[in-house]
C-alpha cells in the first residue's frame, strides 16, 4: 500500500526518484487495532480514590482581627473531601505508581484512606509507601494472596516524535478508558520551572482523572506517566504531558525502597536568555540561563556566581531550553564538585562549585526565594511630574529622579540605597509593556551602577552608537529582590 495522499506532487516525484527517501517514508497504515495490546495491559491499570478530612474553621472571621468577637479562634469542624486519579502496578506483589498530586492532602486536609479499584471492580485499601512532590510521583502498596498483573518501564530516551502511544486511565472517574495518539514532542519544557520540567508531549486524549496513568509504546512498555494537560477550557485539546520513564523509574525505585530523594541545588534564581536579554548582553540568544539573584550562603554564592552571570554549561552539559539548569543540577549528587562555564560582562569564565542539597518543595515555598509578592501601596506623597523631552525618556520611555535619603525612606528602602527612581512610565514604551512602573529603582544599566541621570544617559548613548537595540537594567522594586530586565530602546 502506497501513502501518496497528502504529499505534494514534487515531493512524491522526489520520493520515487530517491531510494533513500523511500526508505524514510512511513510504513503503510496505522496499527489495525489496539485491542490485543489493550487487553494485555488494562488489568495492570487501576483507579485511585482518596478520602481526606478537611479542617474548616467554625468562625468565619478566623485569622482576622474580628475573630475574638465571634467565638473561639481555635474552633474547627471537619468535612470529607476526595480526589480521583489513575495508577499502574509495577510488580506482582502490589506496588503501584501514580502522581503525588493524586494522593497528596490539599490545604488544611489530612489523608485518611486510599482506595485502589481494579479493572474488574475489585477494591483494595492501599498504603502510601512514599511520595515526592518535586517529581510529582508517589508509590502505593496493596496486598492479596495471589500475584497481581503488572507492567514494566521502557526506555523513553529512544522515543521519537511521531511514535504511536496509547494512554490508559480513568478520566472523570468513568472507569478504565483507552486513548491513542502520537508523541508530539520529546523533553518539552513547559516553562513551569522546577527540577523536572521535561515532558513527553502527546495528542492522545488526556483529561482530568488520567493523572498518574501510564502511557505505553506499542511494545507495551510504560514510557511515560500522564501528568498534566494544557487547556484553556479544562478539557482535552490534544496537548497532554507525561513524565518520561527515564526520569520516573529511578525515583520510583528509591521510593519503593524507602530511601530519601536527594537532589542537587545551587541556590540561584534564573530566567531564560530571550532575544531582548541576549541583545542587551551582546550574546547569542537561546544559550544558557541568566542569573537574576543568588541565595546568600548557598552553593552558587560560595562558588562566586553573581547576579548578572549567564550560566552556559554545567558539569560538561550545555544549558539549553530543553536541558535546563534546574534539571541538570537536580540530577547531580549533593556534595559533588562540578565545573561551571559562564559569561560575565561579555567574558567567558570557568569556576568550580560544590553542589548543595535541594530543600523540599515546602521549604522552598516557605523561604520564598525569588517569589516575593508585589506591594501595590504607593508610599510617595505625590507623583513627580514628567521631565519632558530628554535622552532617557526618549530612549527608555521613563522619567527618573536621583535617589535621596527621603525617597528611600518613603519607599521602605535602606537610607543608603543608590540609583535612579522611576517617576513616570510611558505605557506605550517597551518599559511600560514589560511592567516597569513608578517607584521602581534602576540600580544599574549594562551591569554598571548608575547614581546620576548623566551616568545613565552616557550608557544609553554608548548603546545607540553601537546600534544595540536593548539595554539590560537592574531594577529594585520595594519589598522585592533586585532583578534584571532587558528593555528595548526606541
Automatic annotation (TrEMBL):
Amino-acid positions noted as binding substrate in the UniProt annotation, renumbered to this chain: 101, 136, 209-211
SMART domains with a match to the protein in the record: PDZ
PDZ domain segment(s): 251-328
Phylogenetic placement of the source organism: Bacteria, Pseudomonadati, Pseudomonadota, Alphaproteobacteria, Sphingomonadales
GO molecular function: serine-type endopeptidase activity
Catalytic-site annotation from UniProt: 101, 136, 211
Pfam families: PDZ_2 (PF13180), Trypsin_2 (PF13365)
Protein name: Probable periplasmic serine endoprotease DegP-like
Amino acid at each position: 500500500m502506497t501513502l501518496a495522499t497528502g504529499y505534494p506532487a514534487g515531493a512524491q516525484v522526489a520520493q520515487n526518484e530517491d531510494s533513500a527517501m523511500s526508505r524514510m517514508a512511513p510504513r503503510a497504515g496505522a496499527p489495525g487495532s489496539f485491542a490485543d495490546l489493550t487487553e494485555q495491559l488494562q488489568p495492570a491499570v487501576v483507579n485511585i480514590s482518596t478520602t481526606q478530612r478537611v479542617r474548616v474553621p467554625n468562625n468565619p472571621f478566623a485569622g482576622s482581627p474580628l475573630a475574638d468577637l465571634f467565638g473561639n479562634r481555635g474552633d474547627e469542624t471537619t468535612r470529607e473531601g476526595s480526589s480521583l486519579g489513575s495508577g499502574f502496578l509495577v510488580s506482582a506483589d502490589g506496588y503501584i505508581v501514580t502522581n503525588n498530586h493524586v494522593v497528596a492532602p490539599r490545604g488544611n486536609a489530612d489523608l485518611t484512606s486510599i482506595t485502589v479499584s481494579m479493572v474488574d471492580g475489585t477494591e483494595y485499601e492501599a498504603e502510601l509507601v512514599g511520595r515526592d512532590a518535586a517529581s510529582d510521583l508517589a508509590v502505593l502498596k496493596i496486598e492479596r494472596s495471589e500475584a497481581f498483573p503488572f507492567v514494566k518501564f521502557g526506555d523513553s530516551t529512544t522515543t521519537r516524535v511521531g511514535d504511536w502511544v496509547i494512554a490508559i486511565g480513568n478520566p472523570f472517574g468513568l472507569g478504565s478508558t483507552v486513548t491513542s495518539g502520537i508523541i508530539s514532542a520529546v523533553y518539552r519544557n513547559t516553562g513551569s520551572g522546577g527540577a523536572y520540567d521535561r515532558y513527553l508531549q502527546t495528542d492522545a486524549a488526556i483529561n482530568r482523572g488520567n493523572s498518574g496513568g501510564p502511557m505505553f509504546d506499542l511494545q507495551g512498555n510504560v514510557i511515560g506517566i500522564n501528568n498534566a494537560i494544557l487547556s484553556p477550557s479544562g478539557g482535552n485539546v490534544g496537548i497532554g504531558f507525561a513524565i518520561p520513564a527515564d526520569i520516573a523509574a529511578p525515583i520510583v525505585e528509591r521510593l519503593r525502597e524507602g530511601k530519601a530523594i536527594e537532589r542537587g541545588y545551587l541556590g540561584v534564581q534564573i530566567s531564560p536568555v530571550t532575544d531582548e536579554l541576549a541583545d542587551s548582553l551582546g550574546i547569542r540568544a537561546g544559550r544558557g540561563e541568566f542569573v537574576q539573584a543568588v541565595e546568600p550562603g548557598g552553593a552558587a554564592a560560595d562558588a562566586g556566581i553573581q547576579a548578572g552571570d549567564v550560566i552556559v554549561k554545567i558539569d560538561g552539559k550545555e544549558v539549553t531550553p530543553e536541558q535546563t539548569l534546574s534539571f541538570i543540577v537536580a540530577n547531580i549528587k549533593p556534595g559533588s564538585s562540578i565545573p561551571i562555564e559562564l559569561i560575565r560582562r561579555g567574558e567567558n569564565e570557568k569556576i568550580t562549585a560544590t553542589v548543595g542539597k535541594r530543600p523540599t518543595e515546602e521549604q522552598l515555598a516557605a523561604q520564598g526565594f525569588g517569589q516575593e509578592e508585589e506591594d501595590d501601596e504607593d508610599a510617595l506623597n505625590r507623583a513627580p511630574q514628567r521631565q519632558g523631552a530628554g535622552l532617557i525618556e526618549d530612549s527608555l520611555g521613563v522619567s527618573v529622579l536621583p535617589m535621596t535619603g527621603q525617597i528611600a525612606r518613603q519607599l521602605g528602602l535602606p537610607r543608603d540605597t543608590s540609583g535612579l527612581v522611576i517617576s513616570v512610565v510611558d505605557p506605550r514604551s517597551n518599559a511600560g509593556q514589560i511592567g516597569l512602573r513608578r517607584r521602581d529603582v534602576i540600580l544599574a544599566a549594562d551591569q554598571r551602577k548608575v547614581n546620576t541621570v548623566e551616568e545613565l544617559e552616557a550608557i544609553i548613548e554608548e548603546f545607540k552608537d553601537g546600534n544595540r537595540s536593548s539595554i539590560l537594567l537592574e531594577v529594585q522594586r520595594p519589598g522585592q529582590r533586585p532583578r534584571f530586565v532587558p528593555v528595548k530602546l526606541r
